[in-house]
Amino acid sequence: MKKRLGLGTWSWGNKLFWNYQSANDNDLRETYEEALKRGFYLIDSADSYGTGKLNGRSEELLGKFLSDTSSFQKKRIQIATKLAPYPWRLGNKGFTRPFLNSLKRLDNKLDIVQIHWSTAKYNPWQELQLLNNLCDLIDQGFNFQIGLSNIGPQRLKNIIQYLSKRNRKVKSVQIQFSLLSPDSMKQINVKRICESNQIDFLAYSPLSFGILCIDPETNENKQDSLLRSLIFKNYTEATIDLRRCLKKIAVSRSVSQAQVAINWCCYQGVIPLVGMRKKSQVIDISNVFKWNLNKKEFEMLQDASENCLKKMPRNPFSSV
Ligand SMILES: NC(=O)c1ccc[n+]([C@@H]2O[C@H](COP(=O)([O-])OP(=O)(O)OC[C@H]3O[C@@H](n4cnc5c(N)ncnc54)[C@H](OP(=O)(O)O)[C@@H]3O)[C@@H](O)[C@H]2O)c1
């Protein structure tokens, strides 16, 4: 199967975790342009991306870059956003205004609309009403496909059935998927359901916020923000053997640790959404198109992942 890579834009506008600085917006534009040039097929955003006053910033930046893109190039890329099912976005019209706002920010280019997380834990009916809302918008002539995020296998099966009653399909599902993500059985079950229903499985945080890229010899912590720095400190010791394994493969192939971690995703046929904010990162990651992990390397990484002392935290809104 042909490898597909997506670009994630959570850090674009996020000060709290990613220490976003608007002075670096040109780096983001270059990141976007390079991703288009190097055959990334999808760009993922969300209406909740951007902290405080910067809410919506990721979509706004993407919209600005899209407006300077030729229609030929725009046709080759898919733009996905996630609408947040906040408890006050209720009923069969709860998403209408947020959808229109995202569409406007994204310069009218919106191919996949995903529900950011499952409401199963606080209001199980809400996400079904919001799905109806999305189906109504499509019926009214808006041209997009429906995606889900942070969904478990049971809920996914229910939603597939629910949408089929309205003659609609789930286009994509994104969940946390990396060498450090928790709940591997749940992920495998979601992946199986996706495979048997021709749903794209998108792997988010495939580099575990960048932890998997830290050199195990120097343990250099990027000190981006207090929060990210604390998380990195917390995982330095616990992930050392896993990162040694990544480095061993990286050195033997003359590639980066990041490429090895992304190719671990690709080996399993999933589509990684890689968070990037520099052109050099896109150039590095695009080399993943040029090589594959072999079975032995994959198994070494699996072992190291299974034996890793600490996994990433679960998303609290992920459903069963
Ligand atoms: N659905 C959800 O709830 C959800 C949750 C989280 C994420 N996501 C999506 O998934 C995307 C990716 O996840 P993520 O942003 O959490 O992080 P990630 O992809 O796991 O890690 C991104 C970080 O890794 C570092 N990195 C990237 N390429 C690198 C390279 N070639 N070499 C070295 N370091 C590299 C960068 O850190 P520096 O820039 O600091 O160097 C980058 O910011 C998000 O942007 C978002 O679109 C969705």
Descriptive labels:
320 residues; alpha/beta; 8 strands; single chain; TIM Barrel; 8-stranded parallel β-barrel; binds NADP nicotinamide-adenine-dinucleotide phosphate
Question: What does this protein look like?
Answer:
This protein has 320 residues and is an alpha/beta fold. The chain has a single domain (6-306), classed as NADP-dependent oxidoreductase domain (TIM Barrel), CATH 3.20.20. The protein contains 13 helices and 8 strands. The chain has helices at residues 15-18, 25-37, 57-67, 71-76, 96-105, 126-139, 153-164, 184-196, 226-236, 240-253, 257-267, 279-286, 295-306; strands at 6-8, 42-44, 78-83, 112-115, 145-149, 170-176, 200-204, 271-275. An 8-stranded parallel barrel has the order 1-2-3-4-5-6-7-8, surrounded by 5 helices. Helix 8 (184-196) links the parallel strand 6 and strand 7 (200-204). Helix 10 packs antiparallel against helix 13 (295-306). The radius of gyration is 19 Å and the shape is globular. It starts with 5 loop residues before the first strand and ends in a 14-residue tail after the last helix.
